[in-house]
Amino acid sequence: MVYSLLADGVVVVHGLFVLFVVLGGLAVFRWRRLARLHVPAAVWGAWIELSGGVCPLTHLELWLRRLAGEGGYHGGFIEHYLVPLVYPEGLTRGGQIALGLLVAALNLAVYGMILRYPRREKNGKIS
């Protein structure tokens, strides 16, 4: 029971991380220092998708599920939890590459806008 709850917790954290990777650049508009966390997260997320790798959080979840006596699954977090929502017929390698490129392009566009239009502080300095 405990291992199953821990595995579910990993799924929640993993899902929040994926959202942060995809949409975190938008939060950087408001909180510029957040870029220190978001840039490495976005690079990691794009790398995992483009390389065809599997995030360590997926391995942790599967290990906890096995300890709980539950069956694991094949593939990664995105294929198991998100693909059924987005791609009902399954994720191909080409689709995975497209997702990685989409994440990279979205974040590059956001950071390009941040660099092009720096925010002015109240005292007139540019941040």
TrEMBL record:
Q: What is this protein called?
A: DUF2784 domain-containing protein
Swiss-Prot/TrEMBL keywords: Membrane, Transmembrane, Transmembrane helix
Q: Tell me any Pfam family this protein matches.
A: DUF2784
Q: Where are the transmembrane segments?
A: 6-29, 41-60, 97-117
Q: What is the lineage of its organism?
A: Bacteria, Pseudomonadati, Thermodesulfobacteriota, Desulfuromonadia, Geobacterales
Q: Which InterPro entries does the protein's record reference? A: DUF2784
Lineage, top-rank taxon, reads: Bacteria
